[in-house]
Amino acid sequence: AWLRNSSMSNARPSAWRAPVLLALCVVAFDQLAKHWAVTGLGPDRVIDVVWTLRWNLAFNSGMAFSRGQGLGPLIAVVATVVIVWLLVTLRTESSRLSTCGMGLVIGGAAGNLVDRVFRGEAWLRGAVVDFIDFQWFPIFNIADICINVGAGALILKSVLSVRRAKKLEVAEFEEARSSAAAADARNATANPPLSRRAQNHDQ
């Protein structure tokens, strides 16, 4: 029991390490990109990249993709709760897909939360820096991309887990049925029907 508890305690830091490091990398990259956008872009400086994509500075006080304007404080509180909840559930996740998805979601949410905390005149009144503009889609940032990609990874992990559970259930059912059929066959061989016994006795 001591060895099992020791191995579990040693596994917990490793379960936290990868997604937390990924989240920190996301926050760092997101903030560096936003710093570049704030210092290098403006109303008179928009950079065309390719096709309709351009770097265009904008400030968003709402949710991702410029939705929910004016709900910054509420969104910040919700983001904080989501981050804490994901950090707690990291202890029960072991697959690479789920840890990667959680790291991306935590990093993206934290990146935008930093903007709300430090880029405003009042607590949680800051606006998120957006600069990726396709002109036919709401302007967004790297943190938004990470949140959506991470959420997609978590959804995919959930779907795959359900499918795997169903396949395991079917396999266990088939195995049980095969075992039952084999047991019936052995019983039939060891205990032949009464009519066959009588026939053998008459002979």
| Tertiary shape | elongated
* Global structural class: mainly alpha
Radius of gyration of CA atoms, rounded to a whole number: 29 Å
The helix content, as a percent range, equals 55-70%
Element string (H = helix, E = strand): HEEHHEHH
Low-confidence parts? 1-11
Number of strands: 3
Tell me the span between the first and last alpha carbons: 63 Å
Structure report:
- This protein is mainly alpha-helical.
- The protein has helices spanning 2-40, 72-89, 96-118, 142-190, 194-202; strands at 47-50, 53-60, 128-133.
- It has a 3-stranded antiparallel sheet with strand order 1-2-3.
- Strand 1 (47-50) and strand 2 (53-60) form a beta hairpin.
- Helix 3 (96-118) runs antiparallel to helix 4 (142-190).
- The radius of gyration is 29 Å and the shape is elongated.
Note the main attributes of this structure:
203 residues, mainly alpha, three-stranded antiparallel beta sheet, 9% strand, disordered N terminus
